[in-house]
Amino acid sequence: MFIDIANIRLKAGNGGDGAVAWRREKFEPAGGPAGGDGGNGANIILKTDEGLHTLMDFRYKREYKAPNGENGRSKKQFGKDGADIILRVPVGTLVKDKETGGVIVDLKEKDQEYIIAKGGRGGRGNAKFTTSTRQAPAFAQAGSRGEEKEITLELKLLADVGLVGFPNVGKSTLLSVVSAAKPKIANYHFTTLKPNLGVVNLGQEMGFVIADIPGLIEGASDGLGLGDEFLKHVERTKVLIHVIDVSGSEGRDPIEDFYKINEELKGYNEKLAEKPQIIFANKTDIPGSEENLEKLEKEFGEKYKIFSGSAATTENLRELMKYTFNEIQNYENDDEEEYKTFDKEYIPVKTREEGINVYVENDNYIVDGPYIEKLLKSTNFEDNESLKYFQENLRKNNVIDKLRELGINEGDSVFIMNFEFEFFE
């Protein structure tokens, strides 16, 4: 197995601003505030999809931005919420914070959803700020910003498709042509020491993992060679492609080869022999293969789907891969081992604190944070009522008390975001 990784950047939608508006209807000379609320920004949601097997789609698009909520309108009309974006990922995707490496969520259930970037809330219109003493508020609340994140998606890839067959029948060549894998290819009669894996990409959301399963020689299920150690990789596959050399270049009988390999599969685990198998009659580009191909089709044509072609010339390989993808989608196995995440213990990533920060830096008193940013953006400093609302919020959230604890004096400057204020009681 190997790990498929993709780094992506996310920006959830901002909340729409509340509106400042007034009733202007005929026969309503004392029309009051009528500004509507802003719509909520769109979330970005991760959702698992059993039909996906790789993170290939995220290699081509690395940034995702969700739509903002609409601003509020007059006549107390709300702005429209932004439409959520759903990003589909394979079951078993581990989501990590790119900067810290902390785990955000482990998506290992079917159709599991997780809001990875939350959209900002829409701001309230001035109609929501009326009180018994404030009849005509000339200010509204700004929408809050949507979350921005850079995340790493990690998928522990286990092969969906296993290539089985005797050594030197063309499995490694086939793997190298249909995927980006680079196995060592040579004319040898001994088997490789580890499975080579690659990703087959047939288009958007049409990818799967394929592996050249080593060790399959006669007697492998009894421990001969390395076969019994690597047959376990076949257990997790959904479909087997049985590669057979029909050229006769090795002096073997293709039909006899097929039966021998299946005996090894059955000898290791009877369920392996029951897995869907597709026969790929390889090396048809070599003269003399026609007779063996006819024998093969006569022997197995009614029970197995047979593709004939050449890994060396790529003949019929795309058709073979398309058929294989469809077989994967139709595969069902209730006993399949549940996906297990990495053994390493990860520390969950810390979420951003939504509040107000009050501190001293370089002898300056500073107030910042997501809430204060939204409050400042909502304030109309030309309007006394809006300014009073701003000051009331600072007191209510203990900003004044915290500044006193830090030793602030009358007349000292307080920096709130990009604004400088003078402190006074």
TrEMBL record:
This is GTPase Obg. GTP binds at residues 165-172, 190-194, 212-215, 282-285, 310-312. Its EC number is 3.6.5.-. It comes from the Bacteria. The keyword Nucleotide-binding applies. Residues 1-158 form the Obg domain. Pfam families: DUF1967 (PF09269), GTP1_OBG (PF01018), MMR_HSR1 (PF01926). GO terms for molecular function: hydrolase activity. Residues 331-425 form the OCT domain. An essential GTPase which binds GTP, GDP and possibly (p)ppGpp with moderate affinity, with high nucleotide exchange rates and a fairly low GTP hydrolysis rate. Plays a role in control of the cell cycle, stress response, ribosome biogenesis and in those bacteria that undergo differentiation, in morphogenesis control. Keywords: Cytoplasm, GTP-binding, Hydrolase, Magnesium, Metal-binding, Nucleotide-binding. Its main location: cytoplasm. The keyword Cytoplasm applies. InterPro entries: G_OBG, GTP-bd, GTP-bd_Obg/CgtA, GTP-bd_prot_GTP1/OBG_C_sf, GTP1-OBG_CS, GTP1_OBG_dom, GTP1_OBG_dom_sf, OBG_GTPase. Residues 159-329 form the OBG-type G domain. Monomer. CDD domains: Obg. Belongs to the TRAFAC class OBG-HflX-like GTPase superfamily. OBG GTPase family. Gene3D superfamilies: GTP-binding protein OBG, C-terminal domain, GTP1/OBG domain, P-loop containing nucleotide triphosphate hydrolases. PANTHER family: DEVELOPMENTALLY REGULATED GTP-BINDING PROTEIN-RELATED (PTHR11702), MITOCHONDRIAL RIBOSOME-ASSOCIATED GTPASE 2 (PTHR11702:SF31). Mg(2+) binds at S172, T192. It is an enzyme of class 3 (hydrolase). It is found in: Cytoplasm. Its cofactor is Mg(2+). It comes from Peptoniphilus stercorisuis. HAMAP family: GTPase_Obg.
